[in-house]
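Exercise 3.2. Students should predict the tertiary structure of the chain below and write it as structure tokens, then compare their answer with the key that follows.

Predict this chain's 3D structure.
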Amino acid sequence: MTDDDRASQDRATQDPAILGYEAARDELAEVVRRLEAGGLSLEDSLTLWERGEQLAAVCERHLAGARERIESVIAAREQQPGAQPLTK
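Answer key:
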């Protein structure tokens, strides 16, 4: 087993919910790369696909949280007297 295989196996057992956005995104990109490369058994492909779904959900949650934070800051700024509206 190579170091890359061991690292992939360690990540696969890690709960994706504890990953930060960048770590989840990077691992998701690796999952996609491995699936696209092919040559995996059906079981390995399904396991990777399931992991990818979990990682995609984690990324979505992080992005939704970031979106909420931005909207909150914009709303708070607009509530300040004399604040200039942000242009789009």
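Discussion points: The radius of gyration is 19 Å. The mean pLDDT is 87.
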